[in-house]
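Let's practice the habit of predicting before peeking. Look at the sequence and jot down your guess about where helices and strands might fall. Then scroll down.
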Amino acid sequence: MDNIVFGRNSVREALRGDRKPDKVIFVNGEKTPPLAELFALAKKSGAVVQTADRKRLDQMCGGQNHQGVVAVVPAKEYASVQDILDAAQAKGEEPFIILLDGIEDPHNLGSIIRSAECAGAHGIIIPKNRAVGVTPTVMKVSSGAAEYMPVARVTNINHTIDDLKKQGIWVAGADMNGDDYTTAPLSGAIALVIGAEGAGISRLTREKCDFIVSLPVLGHIDSLNAAVAAGILIYEVRRRRNN
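Done guessing? Here is the structure:
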């Protein structure tokens, strides 16, 4: 499944982006306007265009909702941390990076990538071990944002934090018992650290952060979904940059 993109938005962005599909497969017998648009786009891109029954597409996607279209694409190339810093410099902006400490749910990673891309972040950094990579499900949930958002995989998140701090980037961890996010210093060159589902940020990573920010929790449960928390903090950083 690593070279599969499925879902109408994800396939559309793949066809428009740099990672052009080699083949696009449509479900037999469905000629809805969205699929007709994608069919024309696939033909124009030069991809091999095929049709197949729904069972074959279901098998290719592991039974997930493909919305009638599947694309076979070259493997996703991960960026380097330097690529992310260079992207910020090319735009004349201070770096805005999201580091993910052990996110294992592809739906959370896909949602975070989508929020980060919409908010103008320069890149996302994930660990190579004990964390989800950019899978087809991540691509689908991101609605194609993963085609545009640089994602770097690193061996050691804590060493990466040290390197970012040496380049003048403040590192803010999202965890309980921190500063209120509305008053925390989230301006300038910033890297947000979002912890794993349930476990949160690891102890060593928390100690590496320059400061900790928290979101108010007023209900009966004591934490937010990782993707929801990330989305709120990402847009708080964007709000500060707009002011």
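How did you do? Residues 4-72 form a domain with the 60s Ribosomal Protein L30; Chain: A; fold (CATH 3.30.1330.30).
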